[in-house]
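To illustrate the input format used throughout this study, we show a single complete record. The first block contains the structure-token representation of the backbone; no residue identities are included at this stage. The design step must infer an amino acid for every position from geometry alone.
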């Protein structure tokens, strides 16, 4: 069992066991003031061996700053069952998408999403938050 990939994106949905990702690969969250909502989503794909697919699993996502202070977290449970259509050695994919809008970033700086499967750390997604640069229109000049 492993996290095959995880990325921050503008939006994600899952349909027919496929991830539909819009604007994937975000590494910087811009905000006009802090605290600020993330205004993003998390797209991830988990790969399971067929014997692991028969069991229920828990994904925990912890959002923390670059000092290790927890900003928030959420949990998701999943299970898929075993398919007779799998070829020998083939893994079961579990695509998952989560809105991150409820997460509020308290300040500019570095953050990470820490992904744990059944309480074992699997992946980190690092990003930064920053103040939106002033534009000529907002400068009043």
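Output of the design step:
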């Amino acid at each position: 069992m492993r996290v095959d990939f995880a990325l921050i994106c503008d939006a994600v949905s899952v349909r027919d066991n496929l991830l539909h990702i819009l604007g994937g690969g975000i590494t910087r969250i811009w905000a006009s003031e802090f605290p600020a909502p993330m205004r993003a989503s998390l797209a991830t794909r988990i790969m399971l061996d067929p014997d692991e697919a028969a069991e229920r699993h828990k994904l925990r996502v912890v959002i923390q700053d670059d000092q290790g202070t927890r900003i928030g977290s959420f949990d998701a449970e999943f299970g898929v069952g075993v398919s007779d259509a799998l070829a020998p050695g083939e893994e079961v994919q579990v695509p998952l998408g989560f809105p991150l809008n409820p997460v509020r970033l308290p300040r500019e700086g570095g953050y990470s999403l820490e992904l744990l499967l059944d309480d074992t750390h699997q992946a980190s997604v690092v990003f930064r938050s920053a103040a939106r640069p002033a534009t000529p229109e907002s400068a009043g000049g």
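Structural context for interpreting the output: DSSP finds one helix and eleven strands in the chain. The radius of gyration is 18 Å.
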